[in-house]
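Protein in question filed below.

…
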Amino acid sequence: MGVQAVWFKRDLRITDHAPLLRAAQSGPLLCFYVLEPGLWAQPDSSRQHFHFVLEALRDLYKRLRSHGVRLHILVGEATEVLEQVHKETAFTDLHSHEETGNDWTFGRDKAVVTWCKSRQVNWHEVPQFGVVRGLKDRSQWQRAWQRHMAAPMSASLADVLIDPIALPEPQRPLPSADTLGLAAAEPSQRQRGGETVARDVFLDFLAERSQRYRGGISSPLRAPDACSRLSTYITWGCLSLREVVQATRLVASDTHLAAAHRKGLKAFASRLAWHCHFIQKLESEPAIEWRNMHRGYDDLRELDFDPALFDALKRAQTGWPLVDACVRMLNETGWLNFRMRAMLVSVAAYPLWLHWRPVGLWLAQQFLDYEPGIHWSQLQMQSGTTGINTTRVYNPVKQAQDQDPDGVFVRHWLPAMRRVPDTWLFEPWKMPASVQAACGVTVGKDIPMPIVDLTLATRQAKDRLHARRKQPDVRAAKAAVIEKHASRRQTSWLDTA
């Protein structure tokens, strides 16, 4: 057989890696990752993503080296790199996982298809998730997902006689985040990359933290420990989703576990399908990255976008303590639990009346676990532009009362709130001047005033959305969206665990 090239993308692991195994079984093996400047120039990329990937690549390099295989990290645009590698090795087959990424990667993959045909290279793409390429009937999706997750995992490289090959030196040096033009900010407390650390996090969740999953995932204070914290590792492929599903189901089946432990694992397992459910939407309709899923909602918010309100949100200066605390946490950790993400987008979409696309680009950079298919589907669902989901409006004051009743979370991330008496914890802007003087906090200086009237702005936003929803042509177009994208069972917000 000719040389078998493996192109690693968002699948930075060796466990349950079908393209890697198939290539190793088929002929001389060449492994590489392409560091594409064009990809990192996209507005949804960030410094934290780049550094996480570099950490994962270092771990992948070590894991492959333990099997006698070298990982090459090549710099350039994909077709240019493939052309150079082909000149040096004349590989006959290219192996990779399918990718449902942003529009840039979609265009890049189409260019790679053209290049492969021109060089008579066989490109073997394997599904990584339970996402069906070319899906014609959404009602068949659930069965396909179950089949994929139940299939045996790929064998270990240790079970294969490998014939590795390497490219000649020297190679182009790796660019830095600075040379790629990535913004300087990076969360100081973000998760670190690599299959090794991902596996440690997963095993810890299975063995211990999953006992706190039910009842803990909604609280911004408890969620960092109660949630699985696997979303980033699944997003970048440091763990196989199939391995996560199968291992979770296996441990949950142990009748010797405590009831709370089993229930936590089962609750987590029940949410894993939603990961692929949302990615399937982007796979089936790539345009939802930038265009309303239901076109009847075009021009609903676009013309009224207020950059000053958006800037206040990004600077954690909305005046609503829980919102601002969540932005501060996101800046420092690159992560938020699912309910606080929902609340952030709800505040942006309703009282601030911001369009989901610029908000989504900002959050894409902020979320270390940014997964395009999940991200854009969720942004639209929360903003009410899918046309098929119930309007979800989260009141940040009520959420604080429900999820942070003692103000522990808010006071951790907003130091000025530590001096605010409990009486005024949820609405500090209502503090009388005498109280402000007594506690040494001035509203409008130490703590911002709310940037809009929450009750009035929310009511006006809901009225505008519902007025659009009642229009006959908008109601009539809803059926097509349901047919293409709707779950065939009740939808819930994905646990970004």
